[in-house]
Amino acid sequence: QVQLQESGPGLVKPSQTLSLTCTVSGGSISSGSYYWTWIRQPAGKGLEWIGRFYTGGSTNYNPSLKSRVTISVDTSKNQFSLILSSVTAADTAMYYCARASNYGSKKALDYWGQGTLVTVSS
Amino acid sequence: DIQMTQSPPSLSASVGDRVTITCRASQSINSYLNWYQQKPGKAPKLLIYTASTLQSGVPSRFSGSGSGTDFTLTISGLQLEDFATYYCQQSYSTPWTFGQGAKVEIK
Question: Which of A115, B41, B71, B78 has the most CB atoms at less than 10 Å from its CB?
Fold first, then answer.
């Protein structure tokens, strides 16, 4: 059973860099055909896709965040990370990591972490 | 970006009711449509993928239909544990986008 667990600071100051890590257990992050994904959700609001890393090596980001976001993978630790620079209060949200699997050519987010709350405040 | 619009944003229903939530895409997405259930304080859970395929372990009272731009999630015989917020999501093209959610509340 695949499990994902987010970790990182819960409080980040405005203009600084948010850094989160997702640790994957129950399966190798470098095997199979999966999309390792970050999603966020401001309190009381909907879900926003941040970006994904494909096991084949490519990354895709939401254009609304593209200039500030980087997703990287550390296969030796079975982790993938999110870096979001120049944060503002608008980046305050619950951040989820998730895995998307292929169903034929279609994809769905079938495993999720429990989420970690990040607050941007001085 | 593909815009996903859900309706209604919220609804009140009783145990045993049949509930229908719709999701409309701003352009055709074939059947690249997934449904998730989210309970307060929890991560979303995949219910249905590719518009109509039930995820393993999900009760058969949940069903999905549609293709192109219009999709439906139906709960046949609402149970107490089904009171939650439901999101549709398209995986046709990046950025993947979600509907704004439909909250199912107890009447």
Answer: B71
DSSP 3-state of B2? coil
Gap from A50 CA to chain B (nearest CA, Å): 8
Which residues does B11 contact at the CB level (< 8 Å), separation at least 6?
B19, B21, B102, B103, B104, B105
- The three-class DSSP label of residue A109 is strand
User: B97-98 and B85-90 as β-strands: parallel, antiparallel, unpaired?
Assistant: antiparallel
- Give the whole-angstrom CA distance, residue B96 versus residue B73: 19
> Cβ B46–A108 below 8 Å, yes or no?
yes
DSSP-based three-state secondary structure for B52 = coil
Encode chain A (122 residues) as per-residue pLDDT tens digits: 999 999 999 999 999 999 999 999 999 999 889 999 999 999 999 999 999 999 888 999 999 998 999 999 999 999 999 999 999 999 999 999 999 999 888 999 999 999 999 999 99
